[in-house]
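Supplementary notes for students who missed Thursday's class. We covered one full example, reproduced here. Read the sequence, then the structure, then the short commentary at the end.
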Amino acid sequence: MLTKISKIHVFTIAISSFLTACGDGSDNTESSNFTPTPINGTAVDFYLKNADIKFDDCENKFIKTDTKGNFSFTTTAACNESALTITGGIDIGTNLPFTGTLKFKKMDLKNLKNGTLVVSPLTSLEYYLEKAGQSGQLDKILTNLGLSNINNISQFDPAKDGDAHTMAVVFIFQQLATQIEDRLQTINKSDGSTAFTQEQAAQITFDTLISQLSTQPLFTANSAKIDSAVLKNIINKAIDNAKAKMNDSNIIIDTTFTDQISSNIIAVSTAIANIAQNGGTSANLLSELQKNPDVLETITENLKSPIYNDLFLANYDIAAIKASSATNPLNINLANLNNTLAVQFKLANTKSELNDTVALAFKLEGSKGSYRENLSINNIQVKFNNQGSIISAKIPKNTIINISSSFKNIQQFQFSVPQDLVINSNGNISVNYLIQSHGALKDYYNNYINKLPTGSLIQVTAYILPSTYTINPQLNLAQETVTIGTSTFKSSALTGYFKLN
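Structure (token representation):
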């Protein structure tokens, strides 16, 4: 999904502003012998504007980059030695949100050369190498990235000091890191919580990159075009490392995102390498990108991550469902009542067939809530085509289904699906296929709907929890915890109101 950011100029923040970000000037640790030191810095993917800078060793204090990717601060006795973490903001080269992580190793900030520092993908490499006790591998890794003659990474600004080739390599390297990091952060545990924090995802990603780049070049000779075989090795190794970290066989990682990331990075690498081969400075590279909107669009479109962007319930779109209410219900007839147990969702930004595992639950309340039917399925395996539409969905054999009901002779029970059960049709996932496949459940459900008289108000809430790809937050779905029988998870929820006619 996505992208990075950087900065070129420096704005000055008053000492009082910095003290808010990095320790109070009245702190008892302030020594009368301490001399505050002004520091200027830059954040580079291309430059990152409005990014958050955390001083990891200064009580997690923050400042921000300016609109050109620069930042300023003044050391205090309480904050003069720290590692830095940069997240968020906008990449001024692509104008996309920066969703990755930049790191700068812990240093004595008051003794920086010229009082300046640059935080870049290269300083991230240095940070994670030092953390792994492999600092001696840095030169070898830089060589395998096709970079050389960089004497001081903490002072080297790829967007200003490098040539077009160097900037292209650094940019592509960071896009690869961000794509892997983003995907790892989309993995959910069975309860709906994320398997990895951003810091954990970044650690797995850079550990993997370091392992591979210690032995193999990432790019083809004298080019910013990425080696496709090495690229796939890196992504597959990252998946393996993530599985080892989770150590949970119940969590499924969709390996189809290997092809998605590979496709994205190869497209980005090819586009930017074709410009970089003309030579010139890094500034020339950015200028040429901005002069070629088609190339820039290719890059930005391939850096967007797959995301759930469309959602339908009972064949109504999300706008209609949200507009419905107890006093303004949507009309539905008895023949179509089963549609209230059908959802359809679509992925945006897909380049290849993708898979996801979805937990799905429904709660139905009819006749002012006097009749209730609730059902949850924690394991629906969904396949999407390269345009993001559902082409298949099944409940695998032995999946546990949880049911609760207002009927006294049902109340609550669960059963195991005896064999794989296909539950999709025309792009919809319908629980009705499950109901019709189970004799007792079919009888219970028919009993339920037969008790609903014409004019009944039916409230339906669908709970949707994908395990790999996220639901677009701009859809503004509620986040709710649903418990049905022994199944509990937190997910996006959408409630619709229907009048039976």
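Commentary. The first strand starts at residue 38 and ends at 43. Residues 1-30 have pLDDT under 50 and may be disordered. If anything here is unclear, bring it to office hours.
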